[in-house]
Design a protein that fits this description.
The radius of gyration is 18 Å and the shape is globular. The protein is of the alpha+beta class. The chain has four helices and 13 strands. Helix content is 24%, strand content 26%. The strands form three sheets. It has a six-stranded antiparallel beta sheet. Strands 1, 2, 3, 4 and 5 form a five-stranded mixed beta sheet that branches. Strands 12-13 form a two-stranded antiparallel sheet.
C-alpha cells in the first residue's frame, strides 16, 4: 500500500484506524500479535501513515470510523452457525473490532471470539451460548483460510474480547483437526456462561 507522511495529510476527516501485523508500523494493540496504524483516504487513494500514530490522531480516526459503522452491517454465515461477518465494503472492517462493544448489543455474557484475516475482514463469534465453544475450531479454520488468500493479510490468529481486554487464543493445526488452547480467563468466562445457561433452564418452583 502507498504511504504518506503526517505532513501530507490534508484533512483529518479522512483518517481511519487500521489493524496491522506486528511487523508493520503502528502502536501496540494486542501485544505481540497486532498493532494499530492510520490510513488516509485522499485524492491518490488509500495511503498508510509512515509514522506511529499520535493519540490525538488515533482518537480522531476512531471517531470517523464510528460515524461510518453500523450493527446492521453484520451478516450471519450460512455455513457456520453463530458466525457474524462485518461487511462494510470500505476496507475498514477489521478496525471495527475496536467498536465491538458498541456494535454488538446486548453484549454476550462470554464476550466474543474474533479473527481479522485482512483489513476488510472481521469474523466474530458471540459467546452467548455454550454451543459457540464447539464452533471455535471451525472459526479458526475459516479465518486462516481467508488470511491465506487475502491481498493484504493481517492475522491468521484467533482472539477473545471480554468487553474490557483482548487475549490471544492459541490454535494448533493438526493433520485432521484444530486444537484450541484458550487462556485461563476464557475458561472462567465459560464457567459463568455455563452457570447462566443452567439457571435459565431450571424450572421455577
Amino acid at each position: 500500500m502507498p504511504t504518506t507522511s503526517r505532513q501530507e495529510v490534508a484533512s483529518t476527516e479522512t483518517l481511519f484506524p487500521r489493524v496491522v501485523a506486528p511487523e508493520e508500523e503502528g502502536v501496540e494493540w494486542i501485544p505481540g500479535w497486532l498493532k494499530l496504524g492510520l490510513v488516509w483516504e485522499g485524492p491518490r487513494g488509500v495511503r498508510s501513515a509512515t509514522e506511529p500514530p499520535e493519540a490525538g490522531l488515533m482518537a480522531t480516526a476512531l471517531t470517523n470510523l464510528r460515524q461510518q459503522s453500523s450493527s446492521d452491517r453484520f451478516y450471519s454465515s450460512k455455513s457456520l452457525p453463530g458466525l457474524r461477518m462485518y461487511l462494510g465494503g470500505d476496507g475498514h472492517a477489521a478496525a471495527r473490532a475496536l467498536l465491538l462493544k458498541e456494535l454488538l448489543q446486548p453484549w454476550p455474557v462470554g464476550g466474543v471470539l474474533a479473527m481479522m484475516p485482512s483489513a476488510d475482514q472481521l469474523l466474530v463469534m458471540p459467546m452467548d451460548t455454550l454451543s459457540a465453544v464447539s464452533q471455535m475450531p471451525f472459526l479458526a479454520h475459516s479465518g486462516r483460510t481467508a488470511w491465506s488468500v487475502a491481498h493484504q493479510p493481517v492475522s491468521d490468529q484467533l482472539f477473545w474480547f471480554d468487553g474490557e481486554g483482548w487475549a490471544h487464543v492459541p490454535v494448533e493445526a493438526r493433520e485432521d483437526s484444530m486444537e484450541v488452547n484458550p487462556p485461563p480467563e476464557f475458561l472462567l468466562a465459560l464457567r459463568r456462561l455455563a452457570a447462566l445457561s443452567l439457571y435459565t433452564v431450571l424450572p421455577e418452583g
